[in-house]
Amino acid sequence: METAIIGLGRMGANMARRLIRAGLSIHVYNRTYSKALSLEKEGAKPHESIEDLVSSLKAPRNIILMLPAGLPVKEHVKILLELLDDGDTLIEGGNSFYKDDIDHYEILNKKGINYLDAGISGGIWGLENGYCTMVGGDENVYKKAEPVFKALAPENGYMYCGPSGAGHFVKMVHNGIEYAMMQSYAEGFNILKASPYAEDLSFQKLSGLWNQGSVIKSWLLELLEKAFKEDPALQNLNSVVEDSGEGRWTVQQAIDTGVPVPVIAGALFERFSSKDNASFSNKVLAALRKEFGGHIVK
Q: Which residue positions in the chain have pLDDT lower than 70?
């Protein structure tokens, strides 16, 4: 199956590599052409323009957008609206707001262009571990594109979630849960650091211990173990923890539907407070974001 990826950042480039390894024919484009060109030796077909990429693909075309949510996605949807044809499929694989997906679906559908929203989780580790993928849109379109999702994901790691917007809605809630899980680990280690036993405790070893049969074991703890191994006191990390949008959207959705989410809301507000609070717990959060997503620590 011929597939194109537009946007070769932390996620997009590794997704292209994983699809190539699965035997798919992959075309790539990035605003900085050198990023696309660097994947040529790995089997990708680079293009200097979106127009060239679209014209090179066999119909019906299959294109994945891996761009920052918001204006960049909206701009590229407008561009592709003029370039794609009836029967082509555009997959938004970033973290778009689910209501934007519904708008994009309706705009593209008028021209016969298919649209799927794919919430993709896996960060910088997805190349080796696979990307957990949540998909929204018309089910018949999803089934045609399923080989792509199967190649991206680990075994049993992708799912059709419902009509347009459902994929990114589920991913939004996933990230809200992630905020709360990270916050609980951060607060726990902050208590340990302030305890009378702090000097005798190795946070690296403790993170590893808790992954051996403990009820709080998780991949996040594996990443914390790695972070503490590299920097035992997290001295080289700034404690400012950015939020990328999904936590805010989750809390807003909860407000709109009258669903209480005190833990997720508290985790979001803690990220706001991190701008003025240089606590160890915020360094733990920053370390986790760096480890799983490659997020730059300011």
A: 276-277, 294-298
Angle at 239 (CA atoms; ends 264, 294), nearest 5 degrees: 80
pLDDT of residue 145: 97
- Residue 242 has a pLDDT of 76
Q: Quote the CA–CA distance of 40 and 255 in Å, as a whole number.
A: 47
Query: Which pLDDT score, from 0 to 100, does residue 296 have?
Result: 55
Element (H, E) at 27: strand 25-29
Cα–Cα dist 118/155, whole Å: 17
As a dihedral over the C-alpha atoms of residue 142, residue 143, residue 144, residue 147, rounded to 10 degrees, the angle is 100
**DSSP code of residue 200:** G
Give the number of other Cβ atoms within 10 Å of residue 45's Cβ: 17
End-to-end CA distance of the chain: 40
d(CA 25, CA 233): 45
The pLDDT, as a whole number, for residue 292 is 81
Residues annotated as catalytic are 171, 178
Give the per-residue pLDDT at 273. Answer: 80
The amino acid at 94: G
Confidence at residue 295, expressed as pLDDT on a 0 to 100 scale: 57
Any residues with CB less than 8 A from the CB of 107 and at least 6 apart, and which? 77, 81
pLDDT at position 236, please?
83
Q: What are the two backbone dihedrals, phi and then psi, of residue 213, each rounded to the nearest 5 degrees?
A: 85, 0
Q: Is 44:18 a contact under the CB 8 Å cutoff?
A: no
Note the residue count of the chain: 298
- Give dist(CA 31, CA 265) in Å, integer: 36
CB 15 within 8 A of CB 152: yes
| 4 beta partners | 27, 63
DSSP state of 201: -
Tokens linked to 227: 């972070």
Decide: 6 and 67 in contact? Cβ < 8 Å: yes
pLDDT at position 298: 56
| 298 Cβ neighbours under 8 A, 6+ residues apart | 238, 240, 242
